[in-house]
Amino acid sequence: MTPTSDLDRVAMIVLRYMRRPLFVLLFVYSVGIMGMALMPGKVVEGETTHMNLFHAFYFFTYTATTTGFGELPNGFSEEQRLWTIFCLYTGVIAWFYAIGSLIQLVQNPHFIQAMDGFRFARKVKSNAEPFVILCGFGDAGSLLARGLSDHRMRAVILDADPERIKALGVRDYTVPMPGLHADASAPKHLLAAGVEHPACRALVALTNDDDVNLKIAVMARHLNPRLRVICRSTSARHEANLRALDNVTVVDPFEIFAQLVSRAIARSELHNLNAWFVGTRGVELGAPVQVPRGNWILCGYGRMGRWIHRNLQAHGLDVCIIDPEVDANQVEEGTAIVRAHADHAALMTAGIDDAAGVIAATNRDADNLSTLLSVTELNPQAFRIVRQNSHENQVAFDAARADLVLQHSLTTARRILKLLISPLVQELIDWLAGREPAQTRALVARLKAAVGEEPPHLWSIRLVPSQAPAVVDYLEEGGSLALGPLCCDARAFPARLACEALAVHRDGESIMLPDADFPLSVDDEILLCGTPWSESMLQATLHNPYTLHYVVTGVDEPRGYLFAWLDARRRRRGAHS
Question: How far lies 570's CA from each of 549, 560, 563, 577, in Å?
Answer without folding.
Answer: 20, 16, 10, 11
